[in-house]
Amino acid sequence: MVTVFAVGRLEAIWIKRAHRGKMDEATEATAIAGKGLEGNVDRSRRRQITVIEREVWDELMKELRADVPPSSRRANLMVSGVKLEETRGRTLRVGAVRLAIGGETTPCERMDEALPGLRAAMGPHGGGGVFAQVLDDGVIAVGDPVRWDDGSVTPTAER
User: Fold this and answer.
1) Which of 4, 82, 85, 154 has the lowest CB atom count within 10 Å?
2) Distance, CA of 64 to chain centre
């Protein structure tokens, strides 16, 4: 059996410009060290940016037999090819920007506003994604490579 490794990819960027406001999709964004994404509200010192996995979102939609856009999660970034569950303390590199993973996010009641049952389905196994602190200033763009800063990559398939 051979394990195939792949570097992940930044699939989407969303910026929330107002508290409880809609998530504006962007093709690129400016990350500000110690703050978050430029123009994004509702960030704190500890939770500056949030990240979800494309594979997890797709699985949730399959499980719930739904097709709700991933912006409904209200995260800032969607990545693919990188597992986020149980990664507290690791550093994720998105393009040239490093993110210090602070922990898994807890889905809020807004998830059930988007899709009844979504909040409960997201609960186990990191389904809500992670929150992080921004370590570097820089511009990130959809399509940028995503990898763990220690150089490791996530196994994505087995043959």
Assistant:
1) 4
2) 20
